[in-house]
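Title: Prediction job returns without error message
Component: structure pipeline
Severity: low
Priority: P3
Assignee: unassigned

Description:
Job completed but the reporter wants confirmation the result is attached to the right record. Sequence as submitted:
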Amino acid sequence: MRLLPRNYASNLFDDFFNDPFFTRSFDTSKTALMKTDIQDQGDTYLLDIELPGFKKEDVRAELKNGYLTISASHEENSEEKDEKQNFVRRERYSGSCQRSFYVGDQIRQEDIKAGFENGILKLVVPKNAPKPVEDTHNYIPIE
């Protein structure tokens, strides 16, 4: 008879890899970017989405099948040379993120207002908009 704690009575490695340390995502782009605040303003919702390091041109908002999808992508190249034009450092960065919100089948892209300032995307989404659904890609202009 062996005396083992109850959590080791089954397979040690099953318990080990089911630990929250191993089950959480190591992709920090999903957790560090696109932090969103949603405010209920009566007949509309106000979404403030943080997109640090992104420019207005990097951000796209699309409405399709009742889902408002916000995506952002950015590429950056940095190059430093010495006096002989040899590379001392050369770095490249490419990143993207995306997030979707269900806003309902009756919302059209004209109903949503969007603005981008200081790395924050602000969206005003109506709660109810009884209008016919369009079955096309509808991009929302960002001011």
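Comment from assignee: result matches the submitted record. The chain has one domain: 31-139.
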